[in-house]
Amino acid sequence: MAEEKKTDNFMMRCWLQTVENTIGPNGLKSVLNFAHLERYIDNFPPDNDLLEIPVKDARDLFLSLYDLFGKKGSRTLSLRVGREFARVGIEGRSGLVKALLIAARLAPERTKMHLLLNKLVETGNEWFTSTVSGPIIELKEDDDYFYLIHKDRFESDGVTSEEPVCGVYTGMIRYLMRWITGHDHEVKEVECRATGRSADIFRIAKARTRES
């Protein structure tokens, strides 16, 4: 039997707090009941980095959001959840955030983006166990874009869709890019395992959006 994939307590705690902040305590309870995750009702995991939470629990949480809110509604909601998750995560790990801000303080904007994306890759590879060989997440770039390549994102795991489905991760990256630079940058999922691709690939524009 394959070993069950795990994520850490802090990660699941943040997901639960994020969903609660986005749709309210009663909304969270409805989602948890629908997902058969009643054990988390009024019982968030402890705030530590122990890998004790089945990744399947996080997957079921977000699949339930899609089922309850529908395809169109869940797309908008998942982007909101991603942004809120980034905010909650920043607040929950202020020491890590402070070190990143000090390192990026005098750097050019694209260097700031690169530093943050590298940290996202580093922490992402620590926050989950996986059956994938090698790193779960990789960062590549060309002259105009950064590319986050995620080989085991739970949002697309076992999902079939004609369009990319990883709105939570997309919303999270958008928030983080604005947080580190003070400006909006286009973030788009250009490949998704739900559509039959081998990995979820997120393209981050190095140039600011025009409104910024």
What's the quick description here?
The chain is built from five helices and six strands. By secondary structure, the chain is of the alpha+beta class. The longest helix has 38 residues, at 55-92.
Give the neighbour order of strands across the main sheet: 3-4-6-5
Question: What is the structural class?
Answer: alpha+beta
H-E string? EHEHHHEEHEE
- Count all strands and give the number: 6
Which ranges are low-confidence, i.e. pLDDT below 50, for 5 or more consecutive residues?
A: none
CATH topology of the largest domain: Muramoyl-pentapeptide Carboxypeptidase, domain 2
Ends apart, CA distance between termini: 50 Å
Helix content: 40-55%
Beta strand %: 5-15%
CATH superfamily of the largest domain: Trafficking protein particle complex subunit 3
Number of domains: 2
Write a structural description:
With 212 residues, this protein is α+β, with helices and mostly antiparallel strands. It folds into 2 domains: 6-91, no CATH class; 108-205, Muramoyl-pentapeptide Carboxypeptidase, domain 2 (2-Layer Sandwich), CATH 3.30.1380. It has 5 helices and 6 strands. The chain has helices spanning 9-34, 55-92, 94-104, 109-127, 167-181, and strands at residues 6-7, 53-54, 137-141, 145-150, 187-191, 200-205. Strands 3-4-6-5 form a 4-stranded antiparallel sheet, covered by helices on one side. Helix 1 crosses helix 2 and helix 2 (55-92) packs parallel to helix 5. The longest helix is centred in the middle third of the chain and has 38 residues, at 55-92. The chain is globular. The model has no long low-confidence stretch (mean pLDDT 88).
